[in-house]
Amino acid sequence: MEYKKLWLILASVFIGSFIVLLYFGGEIYQKKPPIPNQVVTESGDVVFAKEDIQDGQKVWQRIGGNEVGSIWGHGAYVAPDWTADWLHRSSIWILDTWAQEQYGNDYQSLSEEKQASLKAHLKKEIRTNTYNPETENITISEIRSKSISHMSGYYASVFGDDPALDEYREKIAIPANTVSNDEDMKKLNAFFWWATWSVETNRPGEDITYSNNWPGEPLIDNVPTSSNIIWSVTSIVILIAGIGALVWYYAFQRKDDLIIAPKIDPLLSIKQTPSMKATIKYFWVVTALLVLQIILGVITAHYAVEGNGFYGIPLNEWFPYSVTRTWHQQIGIFWIATAWLATGLYIGPAITGHEPKFQKFGVNFLFVALLVVVLGSMAGEWAAVKGYITNPTGNFYFGHQGYEYVDLGRMWQILLTIGLFLWFFLMARAIWPALKKKGENRHLLILFLLASVAIPVFYVPGLMWGETAHLSMVTYWRWWVVHLWVEGFFEVFAVAVLAFIFTRMGLVGTKIATTSVLLSTSIFLFGGILGTFHHLYFAGTPVGVLAVGASFSALEVVPLALIGYEAFENYRHSFAKPWMRRYKWPIMFFVSVSFWNLLGAGVFGFLINPPISLYYIQGLNTTPLHAHTALFGVYGMLGIGLMLFCLRGLSGKRPWKTKLLRFSFWALNIGLLLMAFTSLLPVGILQAIASIEHGMWYARSAEFLNQKIIHNLVYFRSVGDTIFALGVMGIAWFVISLKTGKAFVQNEEDSSVKNNTTDTFF
């Protein structure tokens, strides 16, 4: 297929997908749940004002937001989903109040007939939309007003220091006095009430709620909609058809590239420029952040069974769960991104042999800027959660934004965006001389630069919301960053980088590498861009978002069906010539990327993609199952592989001792598998059963999550976690040993080259 046709396909996919993505962004803006000017009773008393709800959202952000329980299913997993919790508790309170008034007994003690009568009354009371578009007010009944007072008092006790709830706070890992100011608590309750009103209230003229009937709640007949079921079935059909079409095309069109690998390592001829050598400090930071992320992960996981400390140490007094979880996630993004950015800075001059003026200075300046953003954002998040930043605007810019994966304050986001554009400038100026030369390599270079510029460009959507932005719109833009930036264009960048590596090593021809990258990018983005919507099914979005998200998220999985071939090809490269032994373990990490792409992104990803599935398991442990195996399994393993590849080049001809790398490789992969299958998956399955049978509120309740079987499964995870952590420590020790020289073969007796032997598979 000619390059021109491939470029046209890619352009069509890109432009068409973003037109649809932006169109539905407009639809979400038009049809999002309204924030009323006032919430008033039938007698005219004002319960909440618009400013109370918006200010309450700011309080929620400051205390950790998505890192303290969840809203609309998005967030952390130890504390409840506040919308599902408020909905269930307030419904029970209303039913008990009516039961006492009418029958002199509580609701659960009534006969089925009486319960059914009260339940029908409750459904009408709760799901009827009383928002007036002319006055922009919501009118509530007296019983609803009383239920708000009841729930406000309850949550004031939870987030305050009521001794009667000490044990409950320990179970949900929330410190006492998380919100100590009465006015802040009133506003937080206003935000919780509005977020719950959005999931329990029917859209005007329809019999489905603003959240497409999520969360499941039998008391008000919140059940999956017909659209949910129809588009779930459709997504499975599309998946099967897509896999069949891809296999058919692959069988008839693909041709192997008949390349004879060079007899000697072509990369040894690359001159290490000053800026290339300067990237080594980036990999030291990558290693340090990786170790810190694992330590924070251990602490965060332990909070699920000991919510106020770590084996008796009152750690939550200094580093509450919301802080450790924030840092654990954010540092993961930081170290993976740093590994990839450093690889770009290393590869740029390696491609052309051109060292632009002041390139080393730019690399060093960017390094310092990176440290400022990492350390500054972490300090701001800690200060906000601990209550040292109380001004809402100050928190927004320098503290904790409260949105998962983009928690860092706006000023740190702006600095990070500037840094990403500076990174692209440094890399592009090094590649530019090669880009001006005509030839097949030019197409691959252009795609590499496009993938590179997409990294800063698609972080910009993280700047699209303000302090008082509507939660539906924040969710829309946030997933541009999380899905398109992290899961989308980083993937495209990775494909382009690996193509460059293997073509430069003489293992893949430029023509087939260019064709494969263009085609695979088109296929991936065809499902990936609009697949963003599968995160937005229940975020106050219209049914069209559910339909598009279900259809195209199924197509995201299609390219992964043939991932085994990619793994085999990568593994085969490690045996192409004897000199390839130098790169065996970087390549083995690339092989593991293919495995985790299939399992973590493919199998576990599709587990939560269909609307009917996500309806019951959004916000359960099936989500971190996908997140851990896809984010670390795919992007983390790739980051380690790229780091080792660059360090191999920076080490020159000196051979490595590789036993530690072999141990780390298998420890990381085995540990991650055990983490998934001995803890995250079984807990997620048990939660899914609870959600289906009783509702989302129960699957996320302290009552359910503190059962002995759940605690045992969390403790079982420590086996996989320990093996995984040892693998990380092995990587860290190896990087340190490269600096001290202990990782290099010191004499001929240590060298496998002398005996003409190779590393064994195990």
TrEMBL record:
Keyword set includes ATP-binding: no
Gene Ontology cellular component terms for the protein in this record: membrane
Membrane-spanning residues: 7-26, 229-251, 282-305, 331-351, 363-385, 411-432, 444-465, 477-503, 515-537, 543-565, 585-608, 628-651, 663-689, 709-736
Molecular function GO terms recorded: cytochrome-c oxidase activity; heme binding
Domain of life: Bacteria
Domain annotation Nitric oxide reductase subunit B cytochrome c-like: ranges: 36-215
Annotated Pfam families: COX1 (PF00115), NorB_cytochrome_c-like (PF22085)
Gene3D superfamilies registered for this protein in UniProt: Cytochrome c oxidase-like, subunit I domain (1.20.210.10)
GO biological process terms on file: aerobic respiration
Keyword Transmembrane: yes
SUPFAM superfamilies reported in the protein's UniProt record: Cytochrome c oxidase subunit I-like
Keywords: Membrane, Transmembrane, Transmembrane helix
Protein name as it appears in the record: Nitric oxide reductase large subunit
Organism field: Cytobacillus solani
